[in-house]
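thought: fold this chain, then report.
action: predict
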Amino acid sequence: MATWLHELVGRPVDAVSRLIVELLDPGELMGEAVRDYLALTDKVLAADTAVQLAAVRAVAEAARAEVEAALTMHSGAARGTRWDSPDTDRVVREDLERTLGCTSTDAASRLELADDLAERLPVAGGLLRAGMVSARKASQFAHLLAATTPAVAARIDGELAVQLQSARPASLRKRVARRLLVLDVDHARRQERQVVQGRRARRWSNPDGSATL
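observation:
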């Protein structure tokens, strides 16, 4: 059993991997077997995360299609409200919030990660679907490359994605930073601009007549 578990940890997630995770009781395992079991659960979680991210994109696409259909049907009202892309993005986030019961920030983060792994970082996305890189590592990788250009992101994805699982977080940050220094000289300026654009402020009235910012 111990040898079999170890072999499963080294290969992409499949039906056998899922069955083993479901049937075995980790409390009955010992030594390296229980450690391999834990590693296997992390791989299955990664593959399941990829499935959920695909569903996030599907819901977003459905919400955008519904918005476009409504705007086409009520074109006069749409012109009157000066509807624009940010408005559609807000509706998509609100749809994801309701569906998942999460915050607007969480909905936006999930959608951004789903889009990045599908479009900007296809190698990392493929490894996540196979369970060969953890959801945490894939998310960290996408975050580190969020401010660079799609072309640079794709190149670094091709170079470093296969090293994700074995790299510690600090080591991964350094590797990505070194490549960005070479491939994207404007990265620091673009990253600073992205941070500023990501700031949000909200104001609402309270029942006692005061306001909250």
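thought: worth noting. The first strand starts at residue 204 and ends at 205.
final: tokens above.
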